[in-house]
Amino acid sequence: MGKFSIFIIAGLIALSGCGKTVDHKGKTPLVEVGHEFLYKEDLQAAMPVGMRGEDSVRFADEYIHNWITDVLLYKKAEGNIPDNVKIDELVASYRRALIMHTYQEELVNQKLGSEISDAEIEQYYNQNAGMFRANQPYVQGLFMKVPVSARHLNNVRAWYKKNTQEAIDKLEKFSIGNAVSYDYFYDRWIPVSDIAAKLPLKAVDTDTDYLNRNRNVEVRDTAYCYFLHVEHFLPAGQQLPLEYAKSEIKEILINLKRVEFINRMKDDLYKKASEDKDIIYY
């Protein structure tokens, strides 16, 4: 039998011999200190999921030890703090604030939810352009990774540089049976850091203006050829593309609506209390 099991049994035996009746509300007591109980169910809830064997024994021993010392310290402190009234006032103030906060959050979730339309996001983005700046360059274009053994690489060299429907169609057909990776992003912005992770070219990572000066890049290693065409380049410090600002704007708008809703609710409560003569000034 493990150390923890012996500890539990010893605790239960000690409790059973106390000669007093305690309603544990269906829980299984493990330890009692100063009329406070640690229950088996609380220990099980605190134990990390999947913990077994000696690890669970060590965790249980440490958890029980910490619980006991916390209770002992609390009892000691409680008997030596003279201004309990001040502490009670602080606890009451915190409880009041917590109740109000919980109520407000539940009410906001019921009434507002978290739905923000794309039109609202775009409007805020356009009205507050200066707030959203790119912290790195972004590009639009095309990327392809092809085995060095692939046929018709000379055709690829000609196609990937052209932003024409004919060239794109040919690249897409070629990529189906040949490309390891094909990414068409003429219609969306990509951070240069994402490109640098795909391309074995250090300059892309270290020179922030490299892709602005070099719009067609071809690199090869022992296994692959990498082709990158940059159609548009957005320098760092410029307005961040909308798709990358969306999540931040959504959080801003939710918080703005939340504050507006709570302030309106408080004003309505005050107005109603005034009309009902519930506010008495002395």
Extended strand count: 6
Spans of at least 5 consecutive residues whose pLDDT stays below 50 are: 12-17
Mean pLDDT: 88
CATH second-level architecture of the largest domain: Roll
CATH C-level category of the largest domain: Alpha Beta
Largest sheet: 4 strands, antiparallel
Q: Which percent bin holds the helix content?
A: 55-70%
- What is the third-level CATH name, the topology of the largest domain? Chitinase A, domain 3
| Residues in β-strands, percent | 15-25%
Number of helices: 11
Count of the domains: 3
What's the SSE pattern?
HEEHHHHEHHEHHHEEH
Work out the radius of gyration: 33 Å
Structural class: alpha+beta
Q: What's the N-to-C terminus distance? A: 71 Å
Overall outline: flat
Structure characterization notes:
The protein is of the alpha+beta class and 282 residues long. It has three domains: 3-80, no CATH class; 118-128 and 240-275, no CATH class; 134-234, Roll (Chitinase A, domain 3), CATH 3.10.50. 55% of the residues lie in helices and 16% in strands. The protein contains eleven helices and six strands. The protein has helices at residues 3-16, 40-46, 53-78, 84-111, 118-127, 153-159, 165-178, 192-198, 202-206, 210-213, 242-275, and strands at 29-33, 36-39, 138-147, 181-191, 216-220, 224-234. Strands 4-3-6-5 form a four-stranded antiparallel beta sheet. Helix 5 packs across helix 11 (242-275). The radius of gyration is 33 Å and the shape is flat. The protein starts with a helix and ends in a 7-residue tail after the last helix. The model is unreliable at 12-17 (pLDDT under 50).
